[in-house]
Amino acid sequence: MSDKVKVTIDGISIDVEPGTSILNAARQIGGDIVPPAMCYYSKLQGSGGKCRTCLVKVSKGSEKDPRPMPKLVASCRTTVMDGMEVQNITSPEVVEARKGVVELLLINHPLDCPICDQAGECHLQDLSYEHGSEATRYEFDRRTFDKIDIGDKIQLHMTRCILCYRCVFTADQITDNRVHGILGRGDAAEISTYIEKAVDNDFSGNVIDVCPVGALTDKTFRFKNRVWFTKPVDAHRDCPKCSGKVALWYKGEDVIRVTARKDVYGEVEEFICNDCRFEHKKTSDWVIEGPRKISPHSVISANHYERLTPPSVVRKNPALLESNKEQFERVTKL
Amino acid sequence: MSFSERIYLPSILKGLAITFKHIFKKRETIFYPEQERPVSENWRGLHSLKRDEKGRERCTACGLCALACPAEAITMVAAERKKGEEGLYREEKYAAVYEINMLRCIFCGLCEEACPKEAIYLDGPIVEADYLRKDFIFGKDKLVEAPLKS
């Protein structure tokens, strides 16, 4: 008997290592059936289980015990069993529950997307577009906080926070000296530094990248530009502290922001140090690798003309394809 | 041609009669710009950046109008509101520079539709002709509504 277990998610089967979570099994399949995750972060130990957006329905527990699980489970925290059958987008119950979760996440969110620097790459924004309803039923005042400066480069907007704890795990695991955490409990919980003590670790800037919403933002990028007007470019430099592999965000000739490279699930590939993130904003500091691939569904790719897409009618005609290519070369030569 | 046709007089008189008849008819010409034609409900003219009921600028430089603009006519530079400017700008971010290139604009009204803050409306007059290209780039001085009279 092989040591791999078989799990079926939305009718697609895959063999995975025992101990894999349902979410990670789904990510190995990829595509639309991957549950969204706001708090789970594969590179941070102990993350997950807080936001409940990754809820799925387990319609068959395992081969030995085929009873379904009585309630929806958080897929980031539930490990797969042999013969498990999971329903994600095929289950109306899950879709409905996710809508409720989004509504709860948005209860105290100020919805100030027009102001927020995260707009355009915000996971909560994507999630509420996909799963949420248009209007809110909440009639009370949303909780408000003053803006807090965590060091001179990071700004915390507690109003936007969804308490995913990712930044706390980052501070705990990536940086060697944690100075910020959660104060208060339940409804009153908030991210804060101890007496607003500055985070002066070399890797503290990564809390900006792991934040799924606009709660932790780069102060050097504050209100500089909207994400979709900037052009992301992959670049690297020889950095003694980190891998030095970053994404530069250009506006015209200027680098206005440096971030780590994020994968399809919005997780950084490699954490970068504050030196790279905040201090090197000149093209001459970097070795450019090429434009960053952005999903055509993302708003960041709007008005960025990467190639001339021929209309679908001519796509199969080799002569037209050739002439399209020629035209593209002519146009891009300048 | 017959004799009457050859002397042209009846035709000339007929033509003149039509001309004279129009002297007593209602005049169709509208003397623009002194006089203006009534516009339809969905008229789209020059943009104006609106103020709210307290006279603060509504625009928060979110960039959605520029994103929606098919002609890429809109550019803006955002700035952060400072202490003491709460009476000028409604949100904590505002457009320090807001420019529309009127030669590029096609008056489609998508900026109006995209605006989440109800800040831009195409409710102005026809954009006037000018001589220089640079004069068609309308900045905030031409676009923002006049401040409220207190």
From TrEMBL, chain A:
GO terms of molecular function: 2 iron, 2 sulfur cluster binding; 4 iron, 4 sulfur cluster binding; metal ion binding; NADH dehydrogenase activity
One GO cellular component, as annotated: membrane
Keywords, ordered alphabetically: 2Fe-2S, 4Fe-4S, Iron, Iron-sulfur, Membrane, Metal-binding, NAD, Translocase
Domain of life: Bacteria
Family annotation (InterPro entries): 2Fe-2S_ferredoxin-like_sf, 2Fe-2S_ferredoxin-type, NADH_UbQ_OxRdtase_ferredoxin, NADH_UbQ_OxRdtase_Gsu_4Fe4S-bd, Prok_molybdopt-oxidoreductase
Similarity comment text for this entry: Belongs to the complex I 75 kDa subunit family.
Protein name: Fe-S-binding domain-containing protein
